[in-house]
Amino acid sequence: TSSYGLGETVVQGAVNPDEFYVFKPTLAAGKYPIIRRSIGSKLIKMEFTQAGEEGRVKTVDVPGELRNRYSLVDEDVVELAKYAVIIEKHYGRPMDIEWGKDGKDGKIYILQARPETVKSQSVGKVEQRFRLKGSAPVLTTGRAIGQKIGTGPVRVINDPAEMERVQPGDVLVADMTDPNWEPVMKRASAIVTNRGGRTCHAAIIARELGVPAVVGCGDATDLLKDGTLVTVSCAEGDEGKIYDGLLETEITEVRRGEMPPIDVKIMMNVGNPQLAFEFAQIPNGGVGLARLEFIINNNIGVHPKAILDYPQVDSDLKKAVESVARGHASPRAFYVDKLAEGIATIAAAFYPKPVIVRLSDFKSNEYKK
Fold first, then answer.
1. Name one GO molecular function term (predicted).
2. Which of 119, 124, 198, 248 is the most buried (most CB within 10 A)?
């Protein structure tokens, strides 16, 4: 993850940062290794004060031009990934690495590295898998932390002094969290925040507690009303969703290390790139069908005709296209980039097994909405 300014805002969860996924085998082979990118809002940044200003640091707004593009260029991402592989190889285990890009010399520096203690410890242990058995209107979305589902009444907390209002089983909704919130976070069935990325305080604590969290929603404290019953789902890929009402949840337990290999090489159907890495953990012979139109629907969310006709479309559609295409050279470049990323994510998840992608066959009566 990356954002502008000092790293404190990322750790605090005060900003929604950019995210980059790098595939190690193509990195080692010297080929283009970035398989997925997500642009964050990056509304503010913390920077050092100038001579004569009060204090040592200050928080300022990020200009719109910088917010609407990625905070790192591809060359920076690749350089960082190479450093990460070297550090991981040296310690012989997954590592959580903090870095910074110097504002004067433009060089990238590694600031600290410590063992990753949550995901790496789950290998071979009994794992709970959650699946929603119903549907309901989606109230808001953000970054999913974990793969669980939590339900309960919303408890909107705007001030740490109100934390005692949160009862066991409540869904904690806040702008952001800091270490002072940890006692109350343990009571929550789920956590939802306006701001933050995968490495912010709320995300880190949620992983350690095993509590589902959706961070970086932007407007959760406004949209979710106190006392409303909701379902918080982190079981549908990278995007976490907050549904209206209490949805029935199916929970199964499996020990991945004990799953036997299958004699028949059964291939999977995979249409959602966000679920590819989870599906790849199940014994399989690769992907026999990845429908391109499903990848377009899940990874792009814009009909190709809207991209082709842009900018000669109505004003609302024009704004929607421009919003999702932030950080890309043009809406057409966005479409191509996201399509490539979707295919690359599925291919990387199942590597080195075969992945068969079927070209799209959009029909005139499909995907009108």
1. ATP binding
2. 198
For the chain, domain boundaries: 8-116, 123-253, 260-358
- Superfamily of domain 123-253, CATH level 4: Phosphohistidine domain (3.50.30.10)
Nearest to 329 by CA among 141, 57, 3, 68: 68
- Is residue 207 within 8 Å of residue 122, measured between CB atoms? no
Using alpha carbons, select from 178, 223, 139 the residue that is nearest to residue 12.
178
Which structure tokens are listed for 341?
């990323």
Rounded to whole angstroms, the Cα distance separating 325 from 340 reads 15
Q: Residue 252: its pLDDT value, please?
A: 87
Spatial separation of the C-alpha atoms in residues 318 and 298, rounded to whole Å: 20
CB-based contacts of 109, cutoff 8 Å, min separation 6: 99, 100, 101, 102
**In which residue ranges of the chain is pLDDT below 50?**
none
Q: Which pLDDT score, from 0 to 100, does residue 256 have?
A: 64
What's the topology of domain 8-116?
Answer: D-amino Acid Aminotransferase; Chain A, domain 1 (3.30.470)
Q: Would you list the DSSP string of 207-257? A: HHHT--EEE--SSHHHHSPTT-EEEEE--SSSEEEEEES---EEEEEEEGG
Determine the pLDDT at residue 28: 96
Give me the pLDDT at residue 263, please: 80
Strands 108-115 and 19-22: unpaired
Secondary structure class of 193 (helix, strand, coil): strand
Active site residues: 201
